[in-house]
Structure formats: structure tokens, C-alpha cells
């Protein structure tokens, strides 16, 4: 479905609210022609892989991104210790629309930026009282992120991509045994929601062999440098204080 220039803005929102909730969540196996991008942060060669499964309409997911994710990003993603991938879960139409908005530019930084706004304003847009109201709220988030309304509406009405996203989600969730959000695959092990302290403990336990191999020189560089590196440019993974 493409944006028709003769549609009014109100009609476009009604179209999204009326059609996407059912058609987009329908199972589809004919999605090979639709290119889907997975959005990740951190070094590709990081020693630990973390995959988050989350729904944009899940309050516990919003709490995780408010209370845990900032520290996780500062201490483990930005320092090269983990490769963090976000995989959205589609339990409902609004959660799917939210992800389609976040994907609108195809840019990783923009994706996580819009995701942050969606979680921050979740209580506002996801509980708008009607599907049209939810769609209006998501369009408002798009405007806040600097996207023009025509672009946002076109992204939200891409039913081919919507069906491909749902099919991809179903394959991933079934393979990894995901039944609740947020859930985390840490180096292939499925874990449930947790505090930052619990997350850090798991990650530090996995990093322990690397920490144990640090030389005295490495440790001094950890104390002196914000981004410690050895002479050849190899990053030094320092323990958290």
C-alpha cells in the first residue's frame, strides 16, 4: 500500500488504524523480496553478544530503556565489550507501527534515537484510547524526531514490509524461545528482565577471563585513559569500578 496524494491526513491515519492492525500482523511467507535491516550498537568483534527482544508497547521494556540501558550502553556497549542488537517483538499493531516508524530512515543512530523517544513517550501514544489516536501519537513522535509527516505516513503504510517484519519476528522468537518481553539472549542463553546490577554481574563474569589476562601496563592504562588502547590500537577491556 502506498501513500496516495489525494488522501487527507485524517484519512491516512484512519487507514493505518483500520488496516495495519490486522493485515500487517497476518502471517506471510512471501517476504524474501523485502530487505530487512537488523539494528545493532557496539563493536562487531565485541567479546559478548547481547540481543534484546522488546515490544514498544511493553511497560517493563520502557523501564529497562529508562533505568538500565543508559548505563549498559556507557559501560559495556560504548567500551566495546558487547555487541547489542535490538529485536522488536510484535504483540500488537501499535508495537509494529512504532518499529516501522523507527526504521523509517534506515539509519542506526536514528533508529535508536527514535526508539528512545517511543519508550519515553510510551504511556502517551500507546494508551491513546483508539487505534487512530495511537497512530496520531506515533506520527507525533516522528515529527519530534525530525521526520516530515508525509514520510512517516508512507513508512507506516508499507504493508509489504510490515508482513516481512512480522514473519521475521516469528522465526526469531520461535527459534530463541521468546514468550515475554523484555528478554535477552546473552551469548545464546535466554534470560528474563533484570536490573542493571544483575546484568553487570553476568557480563563481568563473562569478561573475567579477559580481565584476568590484563598486564600491569594494561591496568595503568585503564586508570589513565578514557578509552584505553595498546600501542597497536588494540582496545583494552577494563573492569568496571
In total, the number of strands is 5
Strand content: 5-15%
SS element count, helices? 11
Q: CATH first level: which class?
A: Alpha Beta
Strand order of the biggest β-sheet: 1-3-2-4-5
Tell me the helix content.
Answer: 40-55%
**Count of individual domains:** 1
Question: Are there runs of 5+ residues with pLDDT below 50, and where?
Answer: 1-7
For the record, the CATH architecture stands as: 3-Layer(aba) Sandwich
Mean pLDDT across residues: 88
Tell me the span between the first and last alpha carbons. 52 Å
Backbone structural class:
alpha+beta
Report the CATH superfamily: Glutaredoxin
Tell me what you see in this structure.
- This protein has 241 residues and is α+β, with helices and mostly antiparallel strands.
- It is built from eleven helices and five strands; from the N terminus they run αββααβααααααββαα.
- Strand 4 (183-186) and strand 5 form a beta hairpin.
- Helix 4 (93-102) crosses helix 5.
Topology:
Elements: H1 9-23, E1 39-41, E2 48-54, H2 59-67, H3 69-77, E3 82-88, H4 93-102, H5 108-120, H6 122-125, H7 131-144, H8 149-156, H9 159-176, E4 183-186, E5 189-192, H10 196-212, H11 216-224
Parallel strand pairs: 2-3
Antiparallel strand pairs: 1-3, 2-4, 4-5
Helix pairs in contact: 1-7, 3-10, 4-5, 4-7
Summarize the structure.
The chain is an alpha+beta fold and 241 residues long. It has eleven helices and five strands. It has a five-stranded mixed β-sheet, with helices on both faces.
Amino acid at each position: 500500500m502506498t501513500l496516495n496524494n489525494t488522501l487527507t491526513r485524517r484519512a491516512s491515519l484512519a487507514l493505518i488504524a483500520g488496516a495495519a492492525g490486522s493485515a500487517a500482523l497476518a502471517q506471510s511467507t512471501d517476504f524474501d523480496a523485502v530487505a530487512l535491516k537488523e539494528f545493532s550498537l557496539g563493536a562487531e568483534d565485541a567479546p559478548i553478544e547481547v540481543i534484546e527482544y522488546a515490544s514498544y508497547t511493553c511497560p517493563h521494556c520502557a523501564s529497562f530503556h529508562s533505568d538500565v540501558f543508559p548505563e549498559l550502553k556507557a559501560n559495556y556497549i560504548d567500551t566495546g565489550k558487547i555487541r547489542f542488537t535490538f529485536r522488536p517483538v510484535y504483540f500488537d499493531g501499535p508495537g509494529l507501527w512504532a518499529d516501522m516508524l523507527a526504521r523509517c530512515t534506515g539509519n542506526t543512530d536514528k533508529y535508536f534515537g527514535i526508539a528512545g523517544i517511543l519508550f519515553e513517550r510510551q504511556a502517551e501514544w500507546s494508551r491513546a484510547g483508539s487505534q487512530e489516536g495511537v497512530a496520531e501519537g506515533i506520527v507525533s513522535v516522528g515529527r519530534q524526531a525530525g521526520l516530515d509527516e508525509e514520510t512517516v505516513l508512507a513508512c507506516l503504510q508499507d504493508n509489504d514490509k510490515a508482513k516481512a517484519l512480522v514473519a521475521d519476528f516469528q522465526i526469531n522468537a520461535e527459534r530463541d524461545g521468546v514468550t515475554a518481553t523484555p528478554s535477552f539472549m546473552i551469548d545464546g542463553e535466554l534470560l528474563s528482565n533484570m536490573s542493571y546490577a544483575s546484568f553487570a554481574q553476568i557480563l563481568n563474569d563473562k569478561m573475567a577471563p579477559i580481565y584476568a589476562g590484563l598486564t600491569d601496563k594494561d591496568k595503568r592504562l585503564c586508570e589513565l585513559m578514557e578509552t584505553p588502547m595498546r600501542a597497536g590500537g588494540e582496545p583494552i577491556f577494563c573492569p568496571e569500578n
